Amino acid sequence: MAKVRVHLFITGRVQGVFFRASTHEEAQRHQLTGWVKNLHDGRVEAVFEGEEENVEPMIAWCRKGPPHALVKGLSVTVEVYRGEHIDFTVR
Question: Is 54 a catalytic residue?
Answer without folding.
Answer: no
